[in-house]
Structure of NADP-dependent oxidoreductase domain-containing protein:
Amino acid sequence: MNAIDAGYRHIDCAWRYGNERDVGEAVEQKISEGVISRGDMFITTKLWCNFHEKNKVVPLLKDSLKNLKMNYVDLFLIHWPFGFKEEAPSWPKNKGKSAYSDVDITDTWQGMEKAYDLGLARNIGVSNFNKSQIEKLLLVSRTRPVCNQVEVNPNFNNKRLIAYCKSFDIVVVGYCPLGRIESFGRPGVPKPTMLDPKIMKMAKKYNKTSAQVVLNYLVNNLGVAVIPKSITKSRIIENFNIFDFQLEQKDIDYIESTNKNARVCLASYFGDHKDYPFHDEF
Ligand SMILES: NC(=O)c1ccc[n+]([C@@H]2O[C@H](COP(=O)([O-])OP(=O)(O)OC[C@H]3O[C@@H](n4cnc5c(N)ncnc54)[C@H](OP(=O)(O)O)[C@@H]3O)[C@@H](O)[C@H]2O)c1
């Protein structure tokens, strides 16, 4: 509700996050208050990995729609290219290959196209797909993916995948745009760029915060949509107010120089899955 009041109209959900009910209630409440209409909102949700068989896709989306109390979503994404068996745990960490399904991503895509044909999803796309996985879909799809939601932040600027997606008019939505501060300290996770003292100093010059500088850079210079997450009202407002300043070239150059090609979100437990996306260069 704070986000809608602050002006956000795009809300990122997923069946797996368990946030669909809360988002549905907030949207319903704000519609009843006359603040928004359903048509003002752009609601995304995602197909979880246990439901990659093509005849499971529409039923899973219908479950999401029930949670959201909506009759369509604006965007429906395959959450990850790798699938798990339906009866496996939803995050089968350390369960090994016995938990994996071998459904091909092109079969799952046929289920997504069915959801689109039925009008339950106004747009369909993917998340965490690499270049060759997108290529594979483009070869067989009747309805093309409109979006790839992937990690993008200054530590992992993902430029080659962004350029590839743009060449097919696929919008890139950048997740973990602030580098997911709560993961900092885990092995291999780089320090979020918003904590870099030089970025903090730079932000003062613009009368902004370092989070606002980072989000402005991602939107204006990498050309991606961003979905920062916050449960803090003041930060929700802060993260929305990023469009009224322009970074100087030397500051852009510095932020570019902080790229380390280091991800926060690796899902490396599933590195032995045939469809694990992050072994390829991009
Ligand atoms: N498709 C996928 O596989 C995938 C994977 C990961 C994430 N996502 C999506 O991306 C969204 C964002 O990713 P994320 O939550 O992992 O990472 P993030 O947005 O980079 O970071 C969130 C963290 O930053 C803090 N924060 C937010 N705004 C701040 C500000 N202005 N100043 C200081 N700290 C701030 C938040 O704290 P508080 O909440 O305490 O304010 C939270 O700890 C998720 O909600 C999800 O929708 C998708």
User: Anything to note?
Assistant: Strands lie at 10-12, 42-47, 75-78, 124-127, 147-151, 171-175, 225-226.
